[in-house]
Design brief:
Blueprint: E1 5-8, E2 22-25, H1 31-35, E3 46-49, H2 57-78, E4 85-89, H3 99-102, E5 110-114, H4 120-123, H5 130-150, H6 157-163, H7 167-180, H8 183-188
Parallel strand pairs: 2-3, 4-5
Antiparallel strand pairs: 1-2
Helix pairs in contact: 5-7
Length: about 190
């Protein structure tokens, strides 16, 4: 019940490239990982750790250089497209100014556009129904899990959250829900 995480999304305008979501979790060595033999390399998210589960500048830059950049480059090369990319970001303080200069030289084809102040809810593509389209299936999978575990037992919701739901379950539901965000939903945003 006191679990904390931050999740960020990125996709292209046409909707045919979804980058692994960045997940920042508060614990570097979750017990669920050991219990279920989970290794971070095979996850469907780019997992980083911070005590408050915040996306810090260093985490954001690492995500750019080790997740976003390689995924975009691979996608462009695979589809025989020019190495050109425009990354649209809101003016969040964790997005370092001059990000173009901080990105690894292999990804110098990525140009960054910062949205003007106080325009994020209106202009940020991910705020235009993409996050809502993620939350719907995520909530559906969450309730399915909750009902599956509690229907044949005497567990209360409090006990369910405490002992039968952990980061491993989050990861499965995040993966399912992100896969259910359609290309059409991404394109229309």
């Amino acid at each position: 019940m006191k679990d904390r995480l931050t999740l960020t999304f990125c996709a292209n305008v046409s909707g045919d490239l979804k980058i692994k979501p960045l997940l920042v979790y508060h614990s570097e060595n979750p017990c669920a990982f050991k219990a279920q033999n989970i290794t971070t390399e095979r996850l469907s998210v780019f997992l980083k750790f911070n005590a408050k589960a915040w996306v810090m500048r260093a985490i954001f830059i690492e995500m750019m250089n080790f997740c976003f950049g390689p995924a975009v480059k691979k996608f462009l090369e695979k589809n025989n497209l020019l190495l050109n990319c425009l990354l649209v970001l809101d003016n969040n303080p964790l997005h370092p100014p001059g990000l173009d200069d901080i990105i690894h030289a292999d990804f110098s084809f990525i140009k960054v556009l910062y949205l003007p102040t106080n325009t994020t809810p209106l202009l940020q593509p991910m705020d235009q129904q993409v996050i809502a389209n993620f939350k719907k299936p995520y909530t559906k999978h969450l309730f399915k899990r909750c009902f599956k575990v509690t229907e044949s037992t005497q567990l209360t919701l409090r006990k369910f959250w405490k002992g039968h739901f952990d980061i491993a379950h989050y990861l499965k539901m995040i993966d399912k829900a992100w896969n259910e965000v359609s290309r059409r939903a991404l394109n229309s945003s």
